[in-house]
Amino acid sequence: MILVTGATGNVGRCVVRRLVQAGERVRALARDPSAAGFPAGVQACAGDLSTPEGLAHVFEGVDSLFLFTPASGTGSIARVAREAGVRRVVLLSSAATQKADPRINPIAARHVAAEAAVREAGLRWTFLRPDSFAANACAWADSIRREGVVRAAYPDAQRNPIHEDDVAAVAVAALLDAGHEDHAYALTGPAVITQAGQVQAIAEAIGKPLRFEALTREQALAARPAGTPAEVAQRLLDYALKSVATAPAITDAVERVTGRPARSFAEWARDHAAAFR
Questions:
Q1: pLDDT of residue 199
Q2: Among residues 110, 160, 104, 168, which one has the least CA distance to residue 131?
Q3: For residues 19 and 113, what is the distance between their CA atoms, to the nearest angstrom?
Q4: pLDDT (tens digit, 9 = 90+) per residue, 181-231?
């Protein structure tokens, strides 16, 4: 049995689908399984990773785990999983573990701690370290639908966005093949694209002209999504500013693991065009 946490998230939902297609027995963890719409045959379980002490029953009979890193951390989750008999974990980590100082960067700190907790629990591990998710562009969907405009700082900030289903494809390969144990994969899309270029790709996907309205740093901070701490928003803006002059790296990890190239942002935009119409 394979347990998928974060099963209603962008990556987790794709992991569930791919495992079902591969004929695997899948248990999916969600806060509200009744609203999840999982594929037929998936064993849905209600639970919250922020309270892992009450999840021991969810791990019963589970051999492998796809673990989403919650804000509350993974220390207790990893221990509970190991005590319940889980042997292998594929952890959705972050490139921030290699690119930022965890002493001052909260994103890096969260994922560095998660990786350490999995190692310390004695689980066989594979770490997935995506850099920029193509799905981050969904934050623009509302203003695109309503006004045909994207408002953000640094239109020339460069990204290496990866399709969430490519991350899931690597995750499933690691869950099903022990040859990926003790490997950490830096995951990116196949090419660098600016934020303005992403907006243009979405415009082409939906057949509608879009406008990029550049915000100042202060305006971007004031307009950050509800629930995003100011410190996190500051670090994300720092990363964006740095990338204007220095393009992020591109890796071929998706192709090496799955046997096919990572999909471009334009492909992602076409796959998600309905979200922007």
A1: 98
A2: 160
A3: 27
A4: 999 999 999 999 999 999 999 999 999 999 999 999 999 998 888 778 888
Categorize the per-residue pLDDT at 90 as very low, low, confident or very high, splitting at 50, 70 and 90.
very high
- Rounded to two decimals, what is the model's pTM? 0.92
DSSP string, the chain: -EEESSTTSHHHHHHHHHHHHTT--EEEEES-GGGT-PPTT-EEEE--TT-GGG-GGGGTT--EEEEE--TT-SHHHHHHHHHTT--EEEEE--THHHHS-TTT-HHHHHHHHHHHHHHHTT-EEEEEEE--BGGGGGGGHHHHHHHSEEEEE-TT-EE--B-HHHHHHHHHHHHH-GGGTTEEEEE--SS-EEHHHHHHHHHHHHTS--EEEEEPHHHHHHTPPTT--HHHHHHHHHHHHHHHHSPPP---HHHHHHSSPPPPHHHHHHHTGGGG-
Residue 210's pLDDT is 97
Torsion angles phi and psi, residue 84, rounded to 5: -85, -5
Long-range residue pairs from 143-149, CB within 8 A, at least 24 positions apart, any chain = 144/202, 144/206, 144/210, 144/276, 145/276, 145/277, 148/208, 148/209, 148/210, 148/211, 149/210, 149/211, 149/212, 149/213
Q: Which of 6, 5, 13 lies closest to 168 in space, CA to CA?
A: 13
- pLDDT tens for each residue of 33-81: 777 788 888 999 888 877 777 777 888 899 999 998 877 666 688 888 8
User: pLDDT grade, residue 131 (50/70/90)?
Assistant: very high
Q: Alpha-carbon distance 124 to 181, whole Å?
A: 6
